[in-house]
Amino acid sequence: MYTLFKHLHLTAIGLSVLLFLFRFVLLTLQSPMLQKKWLKILPHIVDTLLLVSAISLMVLIQQYPFVDAWVTEKLLGLVMYIFMVTLALKPSNTKFIRFVGLIGAISWIAFAGMVAVSKQAILF
């Protein structure tokens, strides 16, 4: 069961990042494809799978945010990733702010990945 949820979680992370990068490129190119219904819905489905698999893994390994420092830091990384993605994909932001969001999102997802692999808190 653990392996199933771990692979689902890793797949959802990969898809989430790929969809983010794809939408960022489309926004940068001002592509009308951004208005496609599937491109507005699919990221929400993927992110829901990401959260469900994360919660399932926490329950399976019995480690929780605000109890285990490394899980808390992964949650912080996820929240900051979402914030940075929002900055990067908001059309009304300047190109500079969107670029900061892109770099920030990739940095925070890399941080969460490092914490997940090591299972050691870095910040706390």
Average pLDDT level? 96
Order of helices and strands: HHHH
**How much helicity do the residues have?**
over 70%
User: Any low-confidence stretches, pLDDT <50, length ≥5?
Assistant: none
Radius of gyration: 15 Å
Output the structural class: mainly alpha
Describe the global form: globular
Alpha-carbon distance between the two ends: 30 Å
For the secondary structure, the number of strands is 0
Q: Give the tally of structural domains.
A: 1
- Biggest sheet descriptor: none
How does this model look, in words?
With 124 residues, the protein is mainly α. It has one domain. Helix content is 78%, strand content 0%. α1 runs antiparallel to α4. It is globular. Keywords: Membrane, Transmembrane, Transmembrane helix. Pfam families: SirB. InterPro entries: SirB (IPR007360). It comes from Paraglaciecola algarum.
